[in-house]
Amino acid sequence: MQVTLSQISLLFYLLSCSSIEARYTPDWASLDSRPLPEWYDEVKFGIFVHWGVFSVPAYGSEWFWWNWKGALELEYVLYMIKNYPPGFTYADFAPGFHAQFFDPEEWADIFEASGAKYVVLTSKHHEGFTNWGSPNSWNWNSVDNGPHRDLVADLGAAIRRRSLHYGLYSTLYEWFNPLYLSDKQSGFKTQQFVENKVMPELYNLVNRYKPDLIWSDGDWEAPDTYWNSTGFLAWLYNDSPVKDVVVTNDRWGVGCSCKHGGYYNCADKFTPEQLPNHKWEKCQSVDVRSWGYRRNMKLYDLMDLPTIIKDLVYVVALGGNYLLNVGPTAEGMIAPVFEERLRGIGAWLKVNGDAIYATKPWRVQTENATVPVWYTSKHSTVYAIFTSNPMQNTFMLLAPQTSYSTVVTLLGNPEPLKWAPLQTSGLIVLLPDLPFSPAKAWTLKLERVA
User: Fold this and answer.
1) Where is the signal peptide (predicted)?
2) Which of 36, 190, 191, 418 could form a disulfide linkage to 430, CB 3.0–4.6 angstroms apart?
3) Superfamily of the domain at 366-447
């Protein structure tokens, strides 16, 4: 059969239409239809790193500049009067951001030892200082000032050498940027800040560092139409060098949180009471009072290991990811107390990781059995994680439906445990002596249960 030129033209037209239809358009209905890349749901646990000029005063929180000059909080004003000379500005802190002891390989070793599968670094916080040589932030970046090195690149290379996923936090707004304040004064009818700062930096970050995750923040004062969020995300999903793997959160403008974007953060330390119907993440800091390092940190402000593990288990049982934050010092050190927590998590995950990584929420997420239990699942295997010692030899679970082929083991102990079914559903397990666990958490693995 002879094919005419008009038929060939029609074929190319139909193919081009199909290609166009497969692309994401810059509107939420289209963008929200994009499937979340599978890697993100499988990894479950990541490390958040808040690091910047705020690590130099290292007092109060990473919102130091705003608390001092924006909110005019007396505590911060008096701190500056007492410790710094008259006329000292926030910009004067930047040369003290030396990062002279920053060893990205050492950081990556600690993060890998924690059992985390992804790391998210603050490329820019609300102070506007960028941890790479942004061409749109002359002398207010880590290459022209402070460390005089590309922190985003250095850490990213070390992270990826360990086959961990690398994400970048980037704030949309900046507290005191004149362009932003001008747009804000106009009621966000102008977009000088977005066109000359926000979007050029986001495109630069993606093209230069190819992050697996974009953790957006600082969106809450203006709508997504001001930020041009949907236009950026359409490019990110269609044409960027990470279009097939990149994951995004939901902070893209007023009203977007918990509604639009990739996975949902909803709010800092988001803690749902029941299983959400959308993939979500809880970000939590080891120092419960600050995301950045602070010299006035107290031991009682820190989450201990059992609390962290309990939080991790709860989040994963409800289908979320757990992003745990540490704040390094201005010198580039991860405080030993933070390292101790991270290595403790890793030690627990070496034994119990099967109950965390690549799992799905089970039909029952939790029950109060012998002690409170959280469930996760993987195919026909169910994991029952308990975060307190039952202090007895028998352990009763009410939710699982067993069969003659059900096998019960304690993770870390290969020998099958003796068990017996209850009258309606559930089972009672004969526990061995539980091994010592600094995390105070253990896992029963139930194979071939309904």
Assistant:
1) 1-22
2) 418
3) Golgi alpha-mannosidase II (2.60.40.1180)
